[in-house]
Amino acid sequence: MQDSAAWRRPERGPKVGHKKSRNGCRKCKGRRVKCDERRPVCGNCNRLNLDCSWPDRSFVSTRSQSPAAPPITGIPRQPQSQPSLISDDSSGSPSLGHSLPTPTSLFGRPSPPSLQFFSSFDNPPYAELPESRERRLLEHRLMHHYTTNMSHLAAQANKEWGELFKQTVPMLALKNDNLLNAVLALSASSLLRIEPGNMELFNARQSYLIWSVRHQRATLDSLTAETADPVCLTSILLLIFSFAVLRERPLEPYTAPLEWLHMGRGAGAVIGMSANTILTSGDVKGSAVRIVIDSYPDFSEDEAYFDPSMRQGLNGILAQELPGSREVRDDETREAYEKTLSYVGSIQKAIDNREAVYALCRRIQAFPIMIPSRFIALVEEQRPRALVVLAHYFAAVAQVRGVWWLGAAEVGWEGTAEREIRAIGKALPLEWMVHMVWPLEMADLR
Description:
Region (Disordered): 1-26, 59-107
Order of helices and strands: HHHHHHHHHHHHHHHHH
Oligomer: single chain
GO molecular function, one term: DNA-binding transcription factor activity, RNA polymerase II-specific
Domain Zn(2)-C6 fungal-type: 24-54
Protein name: Zn(2)-C6 fungal-type domain-containing protein
Shape: globular
């Protein structure tokens, strides 16, 4: 991972932000980003806590009504029925469906975007999966697929970690709907890789996802030592799910995978809540939370992954200064870049040291949990430096094989990491491409 040499691409892709809305708020126009035109506070200003003001003219919505790209190849487009993993309702408050009372975060109280966990879903048709023989057979198939074909979740780790996903998860799922539905949604997502045109699987996946999040939220409202384990495990499975579906998202024009990043922040907070509940109760022995926390690598006390030595060879990304650049380089921003780069470097070091796949998966999965929230805000602003750092993370992911949810390249499918790196390369200004040589090489895109 040495500093990249200069590289020129033959054709420069379109820059992010060129496709604008005519009736956007003043802040979005000033930042030259696309505004969703929600009034009185647009989505961007709501997320970034900015003062949202509007031009003095009558409002006429010009938002694009074109349907979103189909999430799975071969599945028909279904505009206005496909739930977004993370979004806000028109009031700017997160919600989980019309049947729920006061709009709050998953944790039962208002929270910043980093704690919003699948915050809005459309109900029909995915929330309606009627009881039938077909449904029972489908659920049997999904659970069978999980128990027989998804053992790589444990990735041949130590005995405790292996039993956690092979035995503990199915057992706890029998009594906890949040975990049961997370297992079914994740299993359906795995099967859709094999049957990308199976609409029954796709509809079921969306329903189980919605149900899992709703039950998770309800359980968190009264978290106990008895429910802490299934809540923790549900968070892990939903985080795996959020990465697995990255391969299905449209990438033109490129927007960073914020749903997955915010999901990670939320999952980290929930795991922390579960751990505190277990520790307070004193019933730590044999708990799933203890296994999650104590497993290697240690993310609780050992912060070696933030050591400056981990980003050796990557400091050129931090040193890049461009004429006319308006990037604010305050201490918080610099620390966010430094810590994130160090964490990426620690993943690469683990790869170079031939660490077990299980440990590599934990490092990769923990990325949105461990990095500073400031870095996620920089990614959300489409800062070129932040996108380059994100590309280096996906370059590390591209080197890990044999784990289905990481989305390795297959016949007819470009890998998740490769898709993200290619799209970031097209979105970046040409002068930043000097730092994309290594990610492009790791993704076999040069």
